[in-house]
# Entry
Amino acid sequence: MPDKSSVSKANSYQEIGEFWDEHDASEFGEQRAAEFTVNIQSEQRYYPIDKEFSSIIRQTAQEHGVSGETLVNLWVQEKINQIRNTQKTEPNAAPDA
# Structure
């Protein structure tokens, strides 16, 4: 740890931890309310994709001027919409793979 912690003047993470075990942030400086927005609906999940298919995705995305992530999300959303629409019109229809 090259620099000391500005408040605790500690030389290690352990010393910083020990300092904050004994002190409270309210002891240092003016306390102000913080306002921020949290988007709890946004989430990222990662799914493995075959290396060759990934290369095709990257190339196709570049041709369309979007990122690979955007292209895959659009394709997945299209497929989900297609499956849902099929299920609405044919209640006993199984989703195609």
User: Anything to note?
Assistant: The mean pLDDT is 84. Residues 19 and 60 are 54 Å apart (CA to CA).
